[in-house]
Specification:
This protein is mainly α and about 300 residues long. It is about 85% helix and about 0% strand. It has two domains: about 160 residues, Tetratricopeptide repeat domain (Serine Threonine Protein Phosphatase 5, Tetratricopeptide repeat); about 90 residues.
Length: about 300
């Protein structure tokens, strides 16, 4: 009986010691996190500045885990977004920036996060979502600096989407008074005057094979189309002249329809490619003008 009591007493003491040890270990490991949460953010910032983004993200998340209701949690999410963006993990960056916007609510810091989110979306070619975020900033901010940045990047988005009129509009608001506005407007007007009509190119090639390609700047294919179709038409005409209608029909069906239709189709495509090259050159020219003025 005494032995059983002794064993029971020992087990109780050991269990008590175990709980005390676990409590002590918890205090040693986690109490500093509550007491020195600012230090965690400082460590995370230092890691981020040294481009150790994974380690920085871990520290920011550790701060968030132990301080979910801290006013600094939104900033931690914002910086996580910056780290992910620097790593090229766009989806993760967007999620973190969205959380920071939600936590910042309607403050100017939320608009700062929106601007970062918008530029991230532009970089990932999510142009419609980027426009949505930029519009929110333009409609809500009282910060002149943020407003100018939003106008600038709205113009950049318009360049990338080849929306020349919107690009001109937002850069006019951004620059207000600047020679660059006249340069931008001149480039856009020149581009719009230089477009080739795919429909017109097709009609021209339907009338004179190859004419649409030449109109679209593709002289080589235009001349080839003219020579090839002329040769086929001549062959059909020669067979008709000789009253060899069967061969005339075969040549017309197998060759003329194929190459004549192809000539019309590719005339339209050449016009589209011409316009694409023109748009690309216009975008490059506009970017060169506005890049030096990035706010």
């Amino acid at each position: 009986m005494h032995v059983i009591a002794w064993i029971h007493c020992k087990r109780y003491k050991m269990q008590s010691i175990r709980y005390k040890s676990l409590f002590l270990l918890f205090c040693i490991l986690y109490f500093p996190l509550f007491a020195y949460s600012d230090d965690i953010l400082s460590i995370a910032d230092d890691l981020s500045s040294r481009k150790l983004y994974d380690d920085a993200i871990t520290e920011y998340k550790r701060f968030i885990f132990f301080n979910p209701n801290s006013p600094q949690t939104a900033e931690a999410y914002y910086k996580i977004g910056l780290c992910y963006r620097s790593e090229g993990k766009i989806h993760n960056a967007i999620e973190a920036l969205d959380k920071s916007i939600f936590l910042y609510k309607d403050s100017e810091l939320a608009n700062r996060s929106r601007l970062t989110l918008a530029t991230t979306l532009i970089a990932s070619k999510n142009y419609n979502l980027a426009k949505l975020e930029l519009t929110k900033i333009i409609n809500s901010t009282n910060d002149e600096s943020l407003l100018k940045k939003a106008l600038y990047f709205y113009g950049i988005e318009a360049i990338y989407t080849r929306d020349w009129r919107s690009a001109e509009e937002y850069f006019r608001k951004f620059y207000q008074k600047s020679d660059n506005i006249d340069k931008i407007n001149s480039i856009i007007k020149t581009t719009e005057r230089s477009y080739k009509s795919p429909t017109k190119a097709k009609v021209m090639s339907a009338i004179i094979p190859g004419a649409g390609q030449i109109y679209s700047g593709n002289w080589k294919d235009g001349i080839n189309a003219f020579i090839l179709n002329s040769a086929i038409i001549s062959g059909v005409a020669y067979n008709v002249y000789k009253k060899d209608y069967d061969n005339a029909l075969i040549v017309a069906y197998l060759l003329l329809l194929r190459y004549y239709r192809g000539n019309i189709y590719y005339a339209g495509k050449d016009a589209e490619r011409y316009n694409q090259r023109l748009d690309d050159q216009t975008a490059n020219d506009l970017i060169k003008i506005v890049l030096i003025d990035e706010p």
